[in-house]
Design brief:
The protein is mostly beta strands. It is built from one helix and 13 strands. Strands 4, 5, 6, 8, 11 and 13 form a six-stranded antiparallel sheet that branches. The protein has a four-stranded antiparallel sheet with strand order 10-9-7-12, with no helix packed on it. Strands 1-2-3 form a three-stranded antiparallel sheet. Strand 9 and strand 10 form a beta hairpin.
């Protein structure tokens, strides 16, 4: 379990109104308690030997349809070469912003050439703004989410043609 998953668990526990939640696997043990009377400030009491964090690397695309994915706001073409594309997925739950501020251009759009380290978007999670960097080289062929839309963990955000 990585830090992003722990943060999502804390958020879920705080919204559920539970006073205490314990989770134990063979690799780690987490005990989350909410402060008495303040359900919005949970604390992690113990986390032992968590697994190595999973990389945010994109995986080869197999199916780009998801129930929470809105219709594609930008589309370069309607060709069926999507099996050769790489999906860039969300590393966390939050709100996606495609530009650094409302009055500036998007970090990337269809046709943009990217390389590892390039900023693709910003995800706001728990009042923190996280820059999401590319881990692949290629060209953006499809943007799968709208600006300022809520996104889920592991939700596809962009399709990249690595060639």
């Amino acid at each position: 379990m990585d830090l992003k998953e722990i943060q999502a668990l804390i958020k879920f526990v705080s919204k559920s109104g539970a006073q205490e939640v314990s989770l134990e696997t063979e690799d780690f043990k987490i005990n989350i308690k909410t402060a008495s009377g303040v359900a919005e400030q949970p604390t992690i009491i113990q986390a032992v030997a968590p697994q190595a964090a999973m990389p945010v690397a994109a995986a080869p695309a197999t199916d780009i349809s998801a129930p929470t994915t809105p219709t594609a706001p930008e589309d370069a073409s309607t060709s069926d070469d999507s099996n050769n594309y790489i999906e860039v997925k969300s590393p966390m739950i939050g709100t996606l912003y495609r530009s650094p501020s409302p009055d500036q251009d998007a970090f990337v759009k269809v046709g943009s050439e990217i390389k590892p380290g390039d900023i693709l978007c910003i995800i706001e999670a728990m009042k923190l703004f996280n820059e999401i960097e590319s881990e692949v080289s290629g060209k953006i062929v499809k943007v799968l989410v709208d600006d300022q839309s809520p996104i889920e963990y592991d939700q596809p955000l962009f399709l990249v043609d690595p060639s």
